[in-house]
Amino acid sequence: MPEVLLDLEWPDGRRTRFYSPSTVVLEHLPPGSEWSVSELRAAGLAALAEASERVRARYGFACSRTDEEAARLRELTSQYDPQARVRVQPQDSSSTLTG
User: Which of 42, 47, 73, 81 is 20 to 30 A from 25, alpha carbon to alpha carbon?
Assistant: First the structure.
């Protein structure tokens, strides 16, 4: 399955990478979109759950990395005001990311 990496730009300018083992994430978090922190959390967790199920359907087991990514997303979103805005960008290999 093709994995997808997106860059998330948080309200304070911090950038982090978001991993998904499936392109289904692009249906939930399209590059160029902007979300409130609470919307991003819901959409990101839904994308990761669906991606993990796609891995399970194809390989017979869920993707454990999606669980790790979901925990990381929960932690990151807890650091910001739920109404603050987050930008979703395509992966930029030249950017300096903090996690």
Answer: 81
Does residue 27 form part of some domain?
Answer: yes
For residues 70-94, one letter each, b for 16 or more C-beta atoms within 10 angstroms of the residue's C-beta and e for the rest, the string is bebbeebbeebeeebebbbeeeeee
Assigned domain for 30 exists: yes
What's the total number of domains in the chain?
Answer: 1
Residues 13-33 pLDDT 10s: 999 999 999 999 999 999 999
Task: Sort strands 34-36 and 85-90 into parallel, antiparallel or unpaired.
Answer: antiparallel
Question: 26: buried, middle or exposed (CB in 10 Å: 19+, 13-18, 0-12)?
Answer: middle
Using an 8 Å Cβ cutoff, are 25 and 58 in contact?
A: no
